[in-house]
Amino acid sequence: MKELYNFNSRISREDTYAEKYDARAEKFGTKKLIPLWIADMDFAVSPAIQEALFERVEHPIYGYTGYYGEYSDSIVRWMTKSHSWEIERDWILPIGSVVSGLKLAVDLFSEEGDGVIIQPPIYPPFYQAVRTQNRRVLENRLIIEDGAYRIDFEDFEAKAREAKLFLFCSPHNPTGRVWSREELLRLVAICKKHNVIIVSDEIHSDLTYQTPHTPIASMDGAKEITITLNSPAKSFNIMGIVSAYAIIEDSKLREQFQAPFLRYSLAHPNLLSMVATRSAYTQSDKWLDEVKSYLSENLAYIHQRLEIIPKIKAMPTEATFLLWLDCRELQLEDEELQRFFVDMGIGLNQGVNFGSGGEGFMRLNFAMPRDVLREVFDRVEICVNPKNQGSITNYSQKKDFENRL
């Protein structure tokens, strides 16, 4: 396929309110590192989205805005085209973000002290959505079998007996798993048996590789118990301007979820987020195809580099632009592991922040130009070798890394 877009271009994001860059000193204690942590891409957005935003901004009136047909219709068409999921416009409820949707669902469908299932290692806001509202975290920890993550279904059913909600991440962040239809059906059956409501975060659903994503709400028996949360934000790199939406087929669940929006007038839409969403879903599919192709090549490049780098292994990645690195063979405590990468000028997410099972792991964002990845793994190759044994002993080497930024 001939490339239409240039993802090799390095675009400065300094002083653009970009958290990935502007928060480096606060996060890592230094600005002199390559940030591979927060989950956005260092790629220019689809030209169609940018042009649609320009066109709307040129209109000089930015008044009250409503969610009218074209916005919802674009979501309906996208779900049919991309995920073979037939939904209706009335099932769609705009929300501020996927994370706010998680928190709202916990608030609405459980009481203080109730149990909520999550599957660590997991995106940290899943823990926060439960703990900050005084619910009990029920950990159904994912297990590694034959080098890949699997669900412990026996433990899941045991937890379901004392749960009101299941906060599901599909595809899974940070492990990159795309759940199979068989796994989804087993989860639905257990949740239905024990009257557990499923709240499914599917924000990475458009960023799959060989294995297609299946919405859990499309499974037999799921519609009465499932709230799906989604957004084009991750797939189309518009986290800074876009809102999200819930898809809820069951009318009773939908009314309960919608009640606070009506009561407190929370559903005022953001004008530019609506424009970006519609353009993403109607005009940017070719851009997304090329992004996924480039990300696949980045992933292959990383695996190639890691073949000759001992003690760091990449877990299989079926979705997202986030790589889960197993660094346990370095035999470093979690804070030492963080410092090890910071000293070589690389800023990653600590696996321990993703909860149980994250110890000794790091999360790497590979949505960046390939020459940046080349620099990253040149540094890793220098430092992760039998001579250094998981430490940077040469001060001049550290200063050289800083000077190469």
Describe the structure.
This protein has 405 residues and is an alpha/beta fold. It folds into two domains: 19-46 and 285-403, Aspartate Aminotransferase, domain 1 (Alpha-Beta Complex), CATH 3.90.1150; 64-283, Aspartate Aminotransferase, domain 2 (3-Layer(aba) Sandwich). It contains 15 helices and 15 strands. The protein has helices at residues 19-22, 24-28, 47-58, 69-83, 98-109, 125-131, 153-160, 181-193, 233-236, 251-264, 271-283, 285-306, 334-343, 370-383, 395-403; strands at 34-35, 92-95, 115-118, 136-139, 143-145, 148-150, 163-169, 197-201, 226-230, 244-247, 313-314, 322-326, 346-347, 349-350, 361-365. The strands form four sheets. A seven-stranded mixed sheet has the order 2-10-9-8-7-3-4, sandwiched between helices. Helix 8 (181-193) links the parallel strand 7 and strand 8. The chain starts with 18 loop residues before the first helix and ends with a helix.
